[in-house]
Design a protein that fits this description.
By secondary structure, the protein is of the alpha/beta class. The protein is 31% helix and 17% strand. The chain is built from 7 helices and 7 strands; from the N terminus they run ααβαβαβαβαβαββ. The chain has helices at residues 17-32, 57-77, 97-106, 138-150, 170-173, 211-223, 241-252, and strands spanning 87-91, 130-135, 158-162, 179-182, 230-236, 254-264, 267-276.
Length: 283
């Protein structure tokens, strides 16, 4: 969740020139990429946003990052480039906006179009992928389902599961996730604010905004398909993303690269792109 808090302190600056360079490249990439078209949220009202996180700067950067890679895949491999995406999961889905955006893109649906409107004109679209979303907040599950339906994504291809992180899907999807999306509660808060099942769960991140992130990292490593799985995770500098990168590399062989980076108000949002360099191994 995008919050107003101070820009990074000196101890949050990258420790290595390599990571600083990656951040700079991510800022350039964010300026060069085209803005993603949001899925329709016309079905939601003000009361819904009292119960679930309203899409904001972090959401926009997240779908920009996803769209950037879909564009690159289409340019390099043509319309069939996304046919290998068979299973995706979004942890902490909120309104379901990022997953619905991805589902529409790989089905060849643009803007406010629905799937039925492009069935005859797009023969090379991926209509086999199943998208899973999870959230501990029951209102988020209800709203995410409505977002999918409102944008023409069928219940056959959109499965919503109420659970903590991806806990109920780990065994089923172990090593099988082609795209994983995670906009975690990254705002630094007292640890006792973490873990509610209401809207507070969308932003309260505990110490350094890392309490939920650190619990999720082993699940992300286990879920990603090798060698082509990819995860997109939102961070702010308060989260010490360089430490996250080192941890994922050392423990799980996951390469973490700042992919898109943009200043929003008084903080920097970064999408960390994660890819496995080896099959997952239990500790």
């Amino acid at each position: 969740m995008a919050e107003h808090h101070p820009l990074r302190t000196a101890d949050q600056e990258p420790k290595t020139a390599e990571f600083a360079s990656l951040n700079a490249a991510a800022e350039r990439r964010a300026k060069e990429c085209r803005s993603a078209v949001m899925p329709s949220l016309k079905h939601l009202n003000f009361r819904d946003y009292d119960r679930v996180y309203e899409p904001s700067d972090d959401t926009y950067l997240l779908i920009d990052a996803i769209g950037y890679d879909v564009d690159a895949m289409e340019q390099s491999e043509g319309d069939d480039g996304n046919s290998n995406i068979l299973q995706t999961i979004e942890i902490g889905c909120g309104t379901g906006t990022p997953t619905v955006y991805l589902a529409k893109r790989i089905r060849g649906i643009r803007g406010d179009e629905k799937e039925s409107s492009v069935e005859e004109s797009s023969s090379n679209t991926n209509k086999n992928c199943v998208h899973y979303v999870t959230d501990i907040n029951p209102d988020a599950i209800r709203i995410a389902k409505a977002t999918a339906e409102s944008n023409g994504i069928s219940t056959e291809h959109f499965q919503a599961v109420q659970c903590d992180l991806a806990s109920q899907l780990i065994e089923k999807m172990d090593g099988k996730v082609d795209v994983l999306i995670f906009n975690p509660p990254y705002v630094p808060t007292p640890d006792d604010e973490v873990g509610s099942s209401g809207i507070e769960a969308s932003w309260a991140g505990g110490s350094n905004g890392r309490v939920v992130i650190d619990r999720a990292l082993p699940q992300i490593a286990r879920l990603l398909a090798f060698p082509n799985g990819v995860a997109y995770m939102v961070t702010v500098d308060d989260n010490y993303p360089e430490q996250i990168s080192q941890t994922m590399d050392e423990l799980y062989g996951i390469k973490v690269v700042p992919w898109l980076r943009r200043r929003a108000h008084n903080e920097y949002l970064t999408i960390q792109r994660m890819t496995p360099t080896r099959p997952f191994q239990e500790d």
